[in-house]
Specification:
By secondary structure, the chain is α/β, with parallel strands linked by helices. It folds into 2 domains: 20-46 and 290-392, Aspartate Aminotransferase, domain 1; 53-288, Aspartate Aminotransferase, domain 2 (3-Layer(aba) Sandwich). It has 13 helices and 15 strands. Helix 3 crosses helix 10 (276-288), helix 4 packs parallel to helix 5 (126-132) and helix 6 packs parallel to helix 7.
């Protein structure tokens, strides 16, 4: 038996499959005929080993309450050690139905109504939503775009915001969505030291940890023992293996007191076991998906290079921010002189594209668009040509 799903140029029709990306344009206020490259899932078939495992499990015909035993943890542990040089312990593990759910539980567990939570805009918009929706206040240490075409952290502002706003909880996005930064060891240590100094708990969303094209992913909790003690590390195979609808994530909380508080909120939410298919998919992905993962990663890396070249050669008023990690590319349209409304209109109604507007990632994202490049090259070429035609014809 060998991996069968390695043709990433293959176009797969996802319409009429209950697909959020393709089947809900009109319901989301978009024209029916837009090309969607917005939500962060891939247009690739997952590993054939995962497909086969799910089919085999479905044949059993009984889908009662399910749980995993130690072999599941050992498979997850081996992946984390092999790919990220991180030695995890089984007692740290808490499984949740997704990383965003875990973020919401952390807000409830570690802050009180009315407290402020720190993040770094422009950032994945559910960060802000789970803070606001739980009656907390969003405080941003805005990232800034440097002369090197990468985003950077204002550390002085970071510490000042912690002091001024009495911050107890910080959401770290590593690698960062949407700006594509893979934070360096020195950057993370500088952040972590400030958080330790002021007693700030760090929820590190590392769901994109397996998509690194420049630099190296550093697990925040693994950099210092003091960081491990203040960390909630959020991981999942959902991005890496295109399993978003399986609704399962592996959350690691080494500090026993922090874990108990987190588990208490899980219990209060009514969450217990996860779906069996998500557990099967995760176990199979991490144990048998390496060939597919490496081939997919190479294809996505080539797609990122293709976008960079296309933008440089064909879109003089657009700048692609250098992408170090994730399969989400951050495009800067500010040189076009278009207002936020005009840019939206051009992308949606003239180019007939459904991208993620930069404004949803925070005010400092206005004038940008996020495009998902985890798709067949032909689809990507079509999307970029649409932008070119809309801007210059």
């Amino acid at each position: 038996m060998s991996e069968k799903n390695l043709d990433f140029d293959k176009i797969i029709n996802r319409k009429n499959t209950r697909c959020l990306k393709y089947d809900f344009a009109q319901r989301r206020g978009m024209p029916e005929d837009v090309l969607p490259l917005w939500v962060a899932d891939m247009d690739f078939e997952t590993s054939s080993y995962i497909q086969d495992a799910l089919i085999e499990r479905a044949k059993h015909g009984i889908f009662g309450y399910s749980e995993v035993q130690t072999p599941y943890f050992e498979i997850v542990r081996d992946w984390m050690k092999r790919h990220h040089n991180w030695d995890i312990q089984e007692k740290w593990l808490v499984k949740t139905p997704g990383v965003v759910f875990a973020l919401a539980m952390a807000v409830k567990a570690y802050t009180q109504y009315g407290d402020s939570v720190l993040l770094q805009l422009p950032v994945y918009y559910p960060f802000s939503e789970v803070i606001k929706d739980n009656g907390r206040k969003v405080i941003s240490n805005d990232l800034y775009l440097g002369d090197d075409n990468r985003y950077h952290i204002d550390f002085e502002d970071f510490e000042q915001k912690i002091i001024d706003e009495k911050i107890k909880l910080f959401f770290l996005c590593n690698p960062h969505n949407p700006v594509g930064r893979v934070w360096t060891e020195s950057e993370l240590i500088k952040l972590g030291d400030i958080c330790v100094k002021h007693g700030v708990i760090v929820v590190s969303d590392e769901i994109h940890q397996d998509f690194v094209f420049h630099g190296k992913h550093h697990v925040f909790a693994n950099l210092k023992k003091e960081f491990e003690n203040i960390s909630i590390t959020c991981t999942s195979p959902s991005k890496t293996f295109n399993l978003a609808s399986m609704m399962m994530s592996n959350i690691f909380i080494p500090n026993r007191e922090l874990k108990l508080k987190f588990k208490k909120e899980l219990d209060a939410s009514g969450t217990s076991q996860l779906g069996v298919m998500g557990l099967v998919a995760c176990e199979t992905a991490y144990s048998k998906g390496e060939e597919w993962y490496q081939a997919m990663l190479a294809y996505v890396s080539d797609n990122i290079r293709f976008v960079k070249q296309y933008v440089n050669e064909n879109l003089p008023d657009v700048n692609m921010i250098d992408t170090e990690g994730t399969y989400l590319v951050w495009l800067d349209f500010r040189k076009t002189g278009l207002s936020v409304f005009e840019l939206e209109n051009l992308i949606i109604h003239k180019a007939k594209l459904w991208l993620d507007s930069g404004k949803i990632f925070g005010k400092c994202g206005e004038g940008f668009q996020r495009i998902n490049v985890a798709c067949p090259r032909s689809v990507l070429k079509d999307a970029l040509k649409r932008i070119k035609d809309a801007l210059y014809q």
